[in-house]
Amino acid sequence: MAKNVVIVGAQWGDEGKGKVVDILTGYADVVVRFQGGNNAGHTVIVGKEKIVLHLIPSGILHKGVKCVIGDGVVIDPECLLEEIETLKEKGKFNPEDLLISKDAHLIMPYHKKLDAAKERLRGNSKIGTTGRGIGPAYEDKVSRSGLRCADLLDREIFRAKLETNLREKNHYIETILEEEGFDLEKLFNDYMGYAEAIKDHITDTSLFLDRSMNEGKSILFEGAQGTLLDIDHGTYPYVTSSNTVAGEAATGSGVGPSTLDEIVGVSKAYTTRVGEGPFPTEHDEEQNAALREEGEEYGATTGRPRRCGWLDGVALRYAKRVNGLTAIVLTKLDILDNFSEIKICTAYKIGEQLIEDFPTEASILSKCTPVFETLPGWKSPTSDIRDFDSLPENAKKYVKRVEEIVGVSSILVSVGAARDEAIMVRNPFS
Ligand code: IMP
User: Would you say the pTM of this structure is higher than 0.90?
Assistant: First the structure.
């Protein structure tokens, strides 16, 4: 029976969703990206090749699987074309498999300039954005002045909207920021060039998804970033500019919420965060280095070193609540193979006050100190293990304890970077 499965990050992004999506795509007919843009970065290892995708769903690596970029995504066409080129070079691109929502908004060069300028102006309270223009592009979407993929298909409309936008943007850039503005003709010609290259992919993807469902196809909805970076439910203002929670799978792709059968939250076996903002289980520099080196914790998009810490059970319970998780996936369990003790945060404390429910206010969260439970490590390699029962006893206990704290079972445990280094406990598509 066909199923619709949503994959979301249960932490601050970088949970290893790319690999999970890659594995589960093997059972899906269609994969949909529904929010974010090229601030995301999914690294997928296929054979000996490492492929990093920022915008195109990693499902594109599976022949015959349709990949949809939904209306909730913001698209930088220059980045999109670069990815298409890379995929073509590797013989992994079938043009018919990529569909782009006509309603998805475009990232423009002025969005990138404004992203950088806003960060500069924030000074010490900067967010640590990826600098890809994501926030300003969503700002224009909400202020109803954004340019959408459909606009690319009509030169007159595109030009008129661009002209109106540039008037306002250039005024701000030139008079407030005292920097050089953008030239209408150049931008127009650049974007008409992009339009020519991607026009055949632009379509009504909501309609396509509806038809696919009616034909009994299984759909995988691929979330980017993570729950705690959600614009409404994350650690505001240290968040991204889109809704990253499972509800956005519906609005960001134009399907009804009742069509979603299963919601899977992906979490590392520990926690990482890039960018600024509170992080209660964050390690000190020495411990940080151990996890960062073992886990190669450097951002796929910006190369920035990630902040690391033990697993935060309070945050995961929150992710279960705001996403309505029906299952979890634990990734990078093997990174904990060499630790003699492993900690899980089960609650926070502010002074003597015990806090069991995740506070999203940055001012409160930054005062929280973790209450840890310590479990013995397993001190043996797990990367070659392919069934749950064969894991070392202490590794099984760790996974079971995480499930107990969060309140849902795991369907997959990842034990290495390669596609086959994973233990499938339950297939959500079957
Ligand atoms: P923006 O999405 O570029 O506006 O950045 C806002 C915040 O979200 C920053 O802290 C970024 O580091 C973080 N962020 C955005 N995309 C990702 C991601 O894919 N993984 C992890 N963090 C991300």
Answer: yes
Q: Is the same domain home to 313 and 419?
A: yes
Q: Which among 217, 236, 263 is the end of a domain?
A: 263
Same domain, 274 and 372: yes
Q: Say how many domains are in the chain.
A: 3
Q: Is 392 in the pocket of ligand 1 (CB under 6 A)?
A: no
Co-location of 97 and 111 in the same domain:
no
> pLDDT grade, residue 88 (50/70/90)?
very high
d(C-alpha 38, C-alpha 80), whole Å: 9
Q: Is the separation of the CB atoms in 271 and 281 below 8 Å?
A: yes
Residue 423 has φ and ψ, to the nearest 5°, of -115, 115
User: Which residue minimizes the CA distance to atom 2 of ligand 1?
Assistant: 240
- In three-state form (DSSP H/G/I as H, E/B as E, the rest C), the secondary structure along 311-375 is EEHHHHHHHHHHHCCCEEEEECHHHHCCCCEEEEEEEEEECCEEECCCCCCHHHHCCCEEEEEEE
Residue 429 lies in a domain: no
**Distance of alpha carbon 168 from alpha carbon 10, whole angstroms:** 38
* Beta-carbon contacts of residue 302 (< 8 Å; ≥ 6 apart): 130, 131, 274
User: Is it true that the peptide bond before 95 is cis, omega within 30 degrees of 0?
Assistant: no
Distance 126 CA to ligand 1 centre (A): 12
Supply the residues annotated as catalytic. Answer: 14, 42
Q: Candidates 139, 229, 308: which one to mutate for ligand 1, based on the most atoms within 8 Å of Cβ?
A: 229
Record the tokens describing residue 288, joined without a space: 């940080």
Mean pLDDT of 357-378: 97
| Integer Cα distance of 301 and 132 in angstroms | 10
- Give CA–CA dist 376/61, Å, rounded: 39
Backbone phi, psi, residue 371, to 5°: -100, 115
Q: What share of the chain is helix, strand, coil (3-state, %, to 5)?
A: 40, 20, 40
pLDDT single digits (tens) 192-211: 999 999 999 999 999 999 99
pLDDT tens for 307-333 read 999 999 999 999 999 999 999 999 999
Structural domain for 353, as ranges: 266-424
Whether the CB-CB separation of 404 and 375 falls below 8 Å is answered with no
Contact 365, 280 (CB under 8 A): yes
Lowest mean pLDDT, pick from 70-79, 88-97, 142-151: 88-97
Q: Where are the alpha helices (DSSP H) in 41-130?
A: 77-89, 109-122
- Please check whether residues 385 and 277 belong to one and the same domain: yes
Residue 8 CA to residue 15 CA, distance in Å, equals 9
